[in-house]
Amino acid sequence: MVLEDACQAHGAIYKGKRAGSIGNAAAFSFYPGKNLGAYGEGGACSTNDPTLADRIELYRAHGEIKRYHHEVVGFNYRLDGIQGAILNVKLKHLDNWNEKRRNIASMYNEMLKGIGDIITPYEGDDRRGIYHIYAIRTKFRDALREFLTENEIQSGIHYPIPIHLQNAYKYLGYKKGDFPITEEQAETTLSLPIYAEMPESDVLRVVDTIKKFFNKGTK
Ligand SMILES: Cc1ncc(COP(=O)(O)O)c(C=O)c1O
Q1: How far away, in angstroms, is 27 Cα from ligand 1 center?
Q2: What is the reported pLDDT for 219?
Q3: 40 C-beta closer than 6 A to ligand 1
Q4: Are 53 and 130 members of one domain?
Q5: What is the best residue among 3, 4, 8 to mutate for testing ligand 1's pocket, by most ligand atoms within 8 Å of CB?
Q6: Domain of 59?
Q7: Same structural domain, 193 and 158
């Protein structure tokens, strides 16, 4: 059983298949900041397995198999009608918005080439990202982030604490050093501003500020 986490991947393509159609089932998030975002919390599952679909539907509404008959202990995961209506309108624009994000990502890739120790995102020929996040990597992440903030440019870290070091998973017994690649990613990734309507002049401003940071010298 393969379950896809497609929460940041609305419209992404891998080997000719859209995210959400690769595994047995997938989860999408419609959190407002996502490429397809509602005006509040929301999400959806996709599957073409009818048994699984029935099961998911059952859990979605407190395990209610028919009015007042509860088969299992489920959850209240019903999507508000208003969110469905908003998402229905926004869905028509998704491909276009994703294309715009891809253009911004290409601009960043081109302009950040060769600056400091920056590593830009890699995209293989058999896939098409939709850049919910545009994350670079640099050893000087924290200092660069501070410099961007001083210059009134917001950035993010997705994500600063790996799952194996979260208190919630302490019971699994992992410690720092157990997943060195994950930990290195958590210490070096930095998400730069990106959204479909981001003007080219803003992309240039972000890149210029990053250049300034590396030109003034890093320690
Ligand atoms: C990769 C990934 N999976 C799952 C989630 C959780 O989505 P939600 O906040 O809608 O539950 C997120 C949200 O940020 C995410 O980025």
Answers
A1: 9
A2: 62
A3: no
A4: no
A5: 8
A6: 3-91
A7: yes
Write down which residue in 91, 111, 141 finishes a domain: 91
pLDDT in tens, 47-95: 999 999 999 999 999 999 999 999 999 999 999 999 999 999 999 999 9
**106 in the same domain as 84:** no
Ligand 1 within 6 A of CB of 31: yes
Amino acid at 20: G
Three-class SS of 47-81: ECCHHHHHHHHHHHECCEEECCEECCCCCECCCCH
98 Cβ below 6 A of ligand 1: no
Beta strand pairing call for 43-47 and 25-29: antiparallel
Whole-structure pTM value? 0.92
Span from the CA of 7 to the centroid of ligand 1 (angstroms): 5
Q: b vs e for 104-119, b when ≥16 Cβ sit within 10 Å of the residue's Cβ? A: bbebbeebbeebbebe
pLDDT at 210 over 90: yes
The rounded Cα 86 to chain-centroid distance in angstroms is 20
Nearest ligand 1 atom to alpha carbon 158: 16
Tokens (6 digits) for 110 = 């081109």
